[in-house]
Structure formats: C-alpha cells, structure tokens
Amino acid sequence: MQVSIRLFAGLRERAGTGARGLELPDGATADPAPRTLHVIARDQSVPITRVGLTVTGTVDRGNQPRTDVTLFNTVRLRFTVGGTDAAQAAALVEGFKRR
Q1: What is the pLDDT of residues 21-46, one digit of tens each?
Q2: What is the separation, in whole angstroms, between the first and last Cα of the chain?
Q3: Nearest by Cα to 35 from 74, 98, 92
Q4: Would you say the pTM of this structure is higher than 0.85?
C-alpha cells in the first residue's frame, strides 16, 4: 500500500515543508486510529463522546536500519478520549494496540 503524507519540519539547522511517499508492509492498514477506537468502544459498549489523536515521530539519520530509504525511528500516538473514565479509556487504547 502506498501512502502520501505532507510534512513540516522545524529543525535547528533549517525549517521546511515537503511531501513524502511511504510504503506500508503487506497486511498493514491506514485506517484512521480515532475511528478504530470508536469501533472498539461501540463493540465493548463503552460510551465515548470524542477521540483526539496526536502523532509524533523522530528520524535519526545516523541510526537507520536501511540505507535505501529513510525510516522513522520512533512513532508515538497519544489518544485523548472524552465521555468515559480514565480506566475505560486506557482499556480502549490497549484494545487498539492489540489490533
């Protein structure tokens, strides 16, 4: 699956924007994470009112596992879930991690 993303970088050395393509491995999905969390909540009968998602990633060009492409070294997803308590929200995120 090919995915196109738009980037903005604000680095000490320079700032810029650009578009990058990336290839996901076979079996990967590009399903929006908030929608997936809503589906998990519905399946578990957990009422939620909203899902927010912040995605951050880092690229360390000096520590790349491949030489033919640049890969993210870390990617973090931070969910905010409204309409339920912290324990249920954490359980929903754990369910998302297992998918």
Answers
A1: 555 566 655 557 888 899 999 999 99
A2: 18
A3: 92
A4: no
